[in-house]
Amino acid sequence: MFNTVSNIWKVADLRRRILFTLFILLVYRIGAFIPAPGVNKDVFKQIDQTGVNLFGLLNTFSGGALFQFSIFAIGIAPYITASIIVQLLSMDVIPKFAEWAKEGENGKKKLAQITRYGTVILGLLQGFATAIGFNRQYNYEMVPGANFVDYLLIAIVLTAGVSFLMWLGEQITERGIGNGISILIFAAIAASIPQHIRTIYQTEFSDSDANLFWGIGKMVLIALAIILIIVGVIFVQQGIRKIPVQYAKRVVGRKMYGGQSTHIPMKVNGAGVIPVIFAISLLMFPATIAQFWSGAAWADWIMHNLTYSEPLGMVLYVLLIIGFTFFYTFVQINPVQMADQMKKNGGYIPGIRPGKPTSSYLTRVLSRITLTGAIFLAVISLLPVAFGALAGLPQSVQLGGTSLLIVIGVALDTMKQIESQLIKRHYKGFINK
Fold first, then answer.
1. CB neighbours of 137 closer than 8 A, spacing ≥ 6?
2. Is 299 helix (H, G, I), strand (E, B) or coil?
3. What φ, ψ does residue 301 adopt, rounded to 5°?
4. What count of other Cβ atoms lies within 10 Å of the Cβ of residue 212?
5. Is residue 243 within 8 Å of residue 266, measured between CB atoms?
6. Per the UniProt record, which residue ranges are transmembrane (predicted)?
7. pTM of the entire predicted model
8. Per DSSP, what are the bridge partners of residue 35?
9. Residue 50's pLDDT band (boundaries 50, 70, 90)?
10. Where do the domains of the chain lie?
11. What superfamily does domain 2-424 belong to in CATH?
12. C-alpha to C-alpha distance for 231 and 173, rounded to whole angstroms
C-alpha cells in the first residue's frame, strides 16, 4: 500500500493529475459556502433541524451546499438529468442525435454541447423551483419581500453555479484523474459524512436519559452493516462472467494468424453507479419542480410521495434503477456489433454458431447478469430506509446504501485508472501482486 502511494508520486504526469484534481475539489468545497444573494441564512437552521427527507437527500448530494443555500445549492443534478435526456433521445428518437452518436468523437462533442444547453435550461427551472419552494414553505422568510426579480437573480446565480460545476467536472475528466462528475458527487457525499456522524451522536448520546450501552450497541451494528455493504458492493462490482472465444487459424502468405483462445469479460454490474445517480436525479426532479406550487394539494402530494422513503416513490426508484442499468449496459455493450466483429475476425464461441446465434447468446447472458446487478443495486439503494426504520435514525441522516454505493463505485473506478497509469510505467499498483 505505502509502496503504491510512493510509486504514484514518482510518476510526474500522475502526480500532476492528482494534485490538479485535489485543487478542483478544494475550489468546489469553498464554493459550497458562498451564499446566494439576498438569502436569510438563519432560516436554514430550521431546515436542518426539521430534517425533511427530500431536502436531506438533496443536501447530501450537494455536499451541504443546499442547507447553506450557496451558489452550488442545486449541485450537479441538472447536468445529470440533461445527460439522461440526451442519451435517451440518441436512441433513434431524434434521428440527428442518433446520427451524431454514431459519428465517434466529433459526434460526442456535438451531443456534449447539447447537454450543456440542456443543463442551463434545467438549472434555471430548478433554481426557480428551489428558491420559490423554500421561500413558500418557510413563510417567505428565506428571501423577505421577494419578487420575480429576486427569484430570477437567485435562479441565475444557481444556474451559474451548476455551469461552473459542470466545467470543473470536465476539467477533472480531461486534466485530472477519474470521471469528473462522479468525483464531484463523491466529494459531496464524503463532505457530508462528518455531519451525519455528529447528528447520530447527538441523537444517541446527547440526551441525559439515553441508554449508553444501547447507543453503543446500535452504533456497532450500524458500523458492521456498513462494512457488509462495502464488502458486498466490491464483490459485485468486481464480479465478471468470462465467455470463452476461440479464433480460427488463418494463413496469410507465410505467416499464420489466429488459433488463439481468449474470453469476453462481462461485468455483473457493467453500468457501475450511473443507474443510481440517474434514478435519484429523475426521481427528485418532479418533487423539485412541484416546489413552484408548494401549498397546492397536488404539489404537496408529489413532494410527499415521490421520495424513495414512500411506497410509490420506492417502487418508481427500483424500476428506474433496473431500467437504467439495462439501458446503460446495452449502450456500452452491443451484442449484435460484438457478434459481427467476432465473425469478421474469425472468432466464435465454442458450441455457438457465428452470426445471429452468437448475438442471441450474448444478449441472453448479458440480460441475466445485468438483471442480477440491477436487483443488487436496487436492494443496496433502499437500505437507508431500512436503516432509518430499524435504527431510529433521524431523516436528515442520508448516508446509506445509495451514498455508499456511489462512494465505493467511484473509488474503485478511480483506483483502476491510477492502476492502469502505474502499470503502463512498470510500477505495481493497488491490485497487482
1. 291, 294
2. helix
3. -65, -45
4. 9
5. yes
6. 18-36, 65-89, 117-136, 148-169, 176-193, 213-236, 273-294, 314-333, 369-391, 397-415
7. 0.75
8. 70
9. very low
10. 2-424
11. SecY subunit domain (1.10.3370.10)
12. 27
